[in-house]
Amino acid sequence: MSERLRGVVAAITTPILETGQPDLERFLVRADFLLKSGCDGLNVLGTTGEATSLSVRQRLTVMNAIDGSALPVDRMLVGTGAAAVEDAVALTMAAADIGFSGALLLPPFYYKPVSDAGILRFVDALVEATAARPIRLYLYNFPALSGIAYTPALVSSLVRNFGDRIAGLKDSSGDLAYAHEIAALSPSLDVFPSNEATLLMARSGGPFAGCISATANLNSADCALAYHQGDEAALARSVAVRALFDGLPLVPAVKAMVARLTGDAGHARTLPPFAPLDDEQSALLARRYAGLEAVDAENAFRRSGNRFAAEKRDKTKS
Length: 318
Prior knowledge:
The chain is an alpha/beta fold and 318 residues long. It is built from twelve helices and eight strands.
């Protein structure tokens, strides 16, 4: 089994074709760029990757495209959560067969309220079905969207029942006290908050394993400086980038900024139920970007966009 993933992990966007299908070519180029620009790993097909707007077939298509590429799949977590246990099993088995570092598991999110016993039953079915290929499972706590929390009591029960199959947790709740409480449950749990501001706490045996962030699509170089070198100025720039998206729909806004920095409007497409940014939102994001006072951050943005464009041109020429 591959080494456990740690450090800066970008929750990579999934480019979408005009037909509504995943844009595999753009995706693979973008994934390669992020891994070369500071990311220790990628979270594929998470919230930012619009996984719950993609069918199981489409999600498998993205996973298989990674498998057929030269990308290091062992540096990637992949979202395999689904409301139906059979879908979650199929995706998790595929993740194990391909060799992903771990599977990121949303709780079954439709029926509410759902008891801890019900979630234990769901995870038990998944663990049993994948026992022959025991890929690491990472719990995905995002109650604002899923409507269901992996409470500390539930996480403790899952670890007690399933041992080292439960490798960690991604926390998108924004509750730092909760993340600390989960990390304290077991030294075997790798906890990844979603905010870059925690990166210095993840260094040198800190409570966290790193961060899994949507905005690491844009600030990966500074995130890497913060995590690997303890660079506080880089951390401040990373946090400033994250603040660009306050009050905006995060996924469409991040995709719009990726499109702007790459000069490729195709990166801005989203799937329903997301809608593109409206004129007012686009203007607000543009004003915030133009108003960044940290010149180094703005230059880093421009370098990232130029580098990506150059790589795309080189690929076209080859």
